[in-house]
Amino acid sequence: MKAIRRFTVRPVLPEPLRPLSDLARNLRWSWHAETRDLFRSVDPGRWAAAGADPVRLLGSVATERLTELAGDRDFLERLDAVAADLDTYMTGERWYQAQPDRLPAAVAYFSPEFGITAALPQYSGGLGILAGDHLKAASDLGVPLIGVGLLYRHGYFRQSLSRDGWQQEHYPVLDPNELPLDQLKESDGTPAQVTLALPGDRSLRARIWLAQVGRIPLLLLDSDIEENDLGERGVTDRLYGGGSEHRLLQEMLLGIGGVRAVRTYCELTGHAAPEVFHTNEGHAGFLGLERIAELRAEGLDFDAALEAVRAGTVFTTHTPVPAGIDRFDRELVARHFGPHAELPNMEVDRILRLGMESYPGGEPNLFNMAVMGLRLAQRANGVSLLHGQVSREMFSGLWPGFDPEEVPITSVTNGVHAPTWVAPEVYRLGARQIGAQRAEEALSVGDSDRWDSVADIADQDIWELRRSLRELLVLEVRERLRASWRQRGAGAAELGWIDGVLDPDVLTIGFARRVPSYKRLTLMLRDRDRLMSLLLHPERPVQIVVAGKAHPADDGGKRLIQELVRFADDPRVRHRIVFLPDYGMAMAQKLYPGCDIWLNNPLRPLEACGTSGMKAALNGCLNLSVLDGWWDEWFQPDFGWSIPTADGIGTDPERRDAIEAAALYDLLEQRITTCFYDRGRGGLPDRWIDMVRRTLSLLGPKVLAGRMVREYVERLYTPAAHAHRAMDAEAARALAGWKARVRAAWHAVTVDHVETSVTATTAQLGTTLGLRVRVGLGGLKPEDVEVQAVSGRVDEEDRITDAAAVALKPVGVPDGDGRWVYEGPLALDRTGPFGYTVRILPGHRLLASGAELGLVAVPSEELAGAAGLLMR
To answer: Which of 1, 42, 131, 360 yields a CA-CA distance of 20 to 30 A from 777?
Structure first.
């Protein structure tokens, strides 16, 4: 029989055990070993059955056991110590509080998904895990972040396999009352809500749930409430589900509703109001519109409000391809804004202009969420050095006239939250070496360039650690594989072979991630005979553990999974290669430490960052990867191996895959397996152990989320907070007026004449030339512009490849035609082919970049040909 109504019955804890409730509802337990150990000791069997979730554990423990614990002095002493530790963590000064003043009072961090713990399944892949690690690292550092997301009642799908290896999706219903969440309540005790207006006099309401992530509040909006009609209740049903209008409503709720939720939270709790708003990918871009509407209600016009909002906004793009960006029909967006919908006092055409692809190569009828994100943020970044370069090229149409390297998108390379991803066995080895306190600080703050103490760990200890982690993985794989085959319909009598799957003494390769085509799940299957010989080599075998989910609508990705599963089902190799369904955080935390090699073979440069290899590296796993994402930036031969790429012009995809697969096999056969299995005089693989040691000591500090968040604070959040403070109403109006005046006059800004003190085509290194330039400013004044000499080496087509810009200064007064003369020195500080040009940019103290307006004036081709200096 089916229940007609559902309740959540919470346990009543005996008074001495009341701190357990606070510990369970602060998600710091997900990365704090002592807290997890405490909950495990409550009831080890129920802890395992609850999936290591303290809230579920406390809801299932027998009253008799709670009564017993309430009288257990040893347990109560441990409970008091862990509770006191959490209190110190929550209230004490941390890295952020020790920094100089002028840092942001608070930062609001918006993301469509957050991967905090498997007990709160609100993530699909790397974007969500990165967002969760960002919050955890901010908590460890004491950064006053407020996280904002949506609460999906079905989360992302659970994955299983059919008998023939086809991905099956399941969407279990999540009850917020059974999750580590609390409702945000108004002062009268009623649930706090936000409301959005929809076309047709309808409304979308959402309740606000609070997840406490260490020191960081995470606000999650939930539309599945009785006050909504059936359609609106389903807006937050599942992550990345539904059609265009469904996704648009999700993103409106996240951005617009999210800002309203932040305001409500700050008002109710007294939390400092955010000075900086961080948009993690374009999904939350509508937050800028709500903030413009707030300022318009205070009396600013649209343009001034836009400048004020931009000053305090940071936008992070994670997408290296246009197809990965949410884009909506302009008519759909227009219908949801304006007089009879949301933001009724905002001109719909102004909203549309923020997201339209009004640049060469764009589709003028599409509203692009990343484009809006960039136009609403004064500061933007990619998530690795290479991805920053790719992003500058991809979005260069927004800054016409500028070379891609000058597009104002920087990069902060992602990092991972070490306390979450480092295996307890690895942590204990480090703590034994330097002490628990120093080990915890090293993993969380990330303010060291190298961990030299790793050099003192004995080779035997490193090798025994690696084998023990591999053995734990073997046991985990067998358990999960048996469960998977039972789901596929196999009987217990058919599965005796699983007891021989994998070997704790065999070189183990891991590959686990989402399964879009560009990540090339099946590249390893390119030459199946060669792969089989690697798996079954009599002296140097390898074994491979694979996991990953394809998007429910991606049949191509599902076919790739099926192809790999069918190969792994072959009785000849099934003890050496396995596919584990339902990849998620719980599996990942066992998989990364147990692998010797982490494989990554995307199509370069389509991997924005790819943090799974970072998590593996922190556990002493070596990387085997295409030079893409973070690996392109930090690869050294001591850290692993790079797979050569065949990405030259004219290489068709089939040939490219064949070449790169062959290179992968070569590396495994000729270098990697020999390095792993060759033994030195002491019976240990000396070179392999040395690579593990160098990976931990030199790469480990680089890949930390603590390092990443400190970079965000220093390079993006703090400058954005300063810009926000400088942009009061008067300054915003003045800047908006100045921009309008500059744009109106720019057509008449010209470089009319350029001359230099040397006319020869050769000169000696160290020579300084004098430049004299006559320009027309079209009614603007010298304080409105910056005239620059741009010089550097030139390529065969006379393009400047490593440009350096020097500002020239106005001389005297304008001539009778209103032309100004600018002069300045040009230093010839490099040998070889050298060239220069002159350009005019808008100049204002409140601009973050000279390219911000996308305006530039350069010499005409005729003038450049007559006056340009080129030295070879």
So the answer is: 360
